Amino acid sequence: MKTAVIDVGGGMRGVYAAGIFDRCLEEGVSFDLGIGVSAGSANLASFLAGQRGRNYVFYTNYSLRKQYMSLRNFILKRNYVDLDYVYGTLSNRNGENPLDYPALAADPTQFLVVATNAQTGETVYFDKSALAQDNYDVLKASSAIPFVCKPYPVGGEHYFDGALGDPVPVAKAFSMGCERVVLILTKPRDTVRTPEKDERIAARIDRKYPRAAEGLRLRAQRYMAGVALAKEYEAAGKLLLLAPEDTFGVDTLTRDIAAVERLYELGKRDGGRVRSFLEGAGR
Fold first, then answer.
1. What is the pLDDT of residues 61-71, one digit of tens each?
2. What is the pLDDT of residues 140-166, one digit of tens each?
3. Angle at CA 79, nearest 5°, toward 74 and 80?
4. Hey, is 88 helix, strand or coil?
5. How far apart are CA 120 and CA 107, in angstroms?
6. What does the DSSP 8-state code read for residue 168?
């Protein structure tokens, strides 16, 4: 019985998934495959490294620092969120809160990081071989929100957020032979995503990155299609869909830490459903 977990990211809303993963670590839950989109890839990296509570500190402490995200960053570096600070300065072995890369590398779970090629618009699924000690560029690439961040370079190509190409990679997980999948959304399950905001951002990158802009314009449609497919698998008993019933006002770049903490606790509560779903799948 091959199992998978998918974290679709969502900026600061990703703290909900961080709570789920911490609950899974507390209960010894593991998976055969993990697919992370945007901030979801970072959540998964800490989970696979066995670092309970690590993601929580990023959302509730480091996110308040101007070095993490600020207008100053945007003016000086054209990156509102400084991905090098988050996944380098803080996360490297000599950083303030290092990712335990040896533990991540040794974990048997297959790990895919979703990114979007800025020039071609192609969806790319980086595997664990693309990571190395103090080289977490694919996490940065997957998290590079268009306009908010410049596309991030990996291996001579530049990449934007994975949500432009495959925002809810349910089909990918089942195509890889998974029989039971846990999908973590960071918006309520019946949210209707509309393209207006994405279209405004797409207009800002259209001239330089027309293929990526096209993916951005299609993101809402692709998201809704992915959630619809997930609900079909859910009805068949093959998928557990975890989503917050309330985000408490937390959005992609929110700094309301009280609300962020509430969303984390909601994730910890909902994470208690994972073990029973996986164990029930085996009967």
1. 999 999 999 99
2. 999 999 999 999 999 999 999 999 999
3. 60
4. helix
5. 32
6. S
d(CA 114, CA 61): 26
Which tokens sit at 251? 């959005």
Query: 216 is written with which tokens?
Result: 């951005």
Compute CA 72 distance to the chain's CA centroid, rounded to the nearest angstrom: 25
Q: Rounded CA gap, 136 and 36, in Å? A: 13
What span, in angstroms and rounded, lies between the C-alpha atoms of 153 and 130?
Answer: 13
Closest CA to 165 of 113, 222, 126, 209: 222
Query: What values do phi and psi take at 166, rounded to 5?
Result: -145, 80
Q: What is the DSSP string of 175-201?
A: HTT-SEEEEE-SS-TT----SHHHHHH
Report the DSSP pairing between strands 239-242 and 152-154: unpaired
